[in-house]
Amino acid sequence: MIYEELRHFADSYGLLFLALIFLSFIGWTFRPGSREKHEEAANMIFEEDQDDG
Q: Torsion-angle region of residue 33: left (phi > 0), alpha (psi -120 to 50) or beta?
């Protein structure tokens, strides 16, 4: 009985929950104002370290 209840939950509400989490992450990535932060993170490895002298 418990296995069937858990499977029903995972098939319906679990899938819905994971889909909402996935869409939230996609929306967070493409939110307004995030372009500058993404460009800064992408170009961070090309900046020279100023502490070396």
A: left
Q: Dump pLDDT digits (tens) for 3-41.
A: 998 898 888 898 999 999 999 999 999 999 899 999 999
Measured CA to CA, the distance from residue 1 to residue 48 in angstroms comes to: 62
Burial profile 26-41: b = 16 or more Cβ within 10 angstroms, e = fewer: eeeeeeeeeeeeeeee
Label each residue of the chain as H, E or C: CHHHHHHHHHHHHHHHHHHHHHHHHHHHHCCCCCHHHHHHHHHHHHCCCHHHC
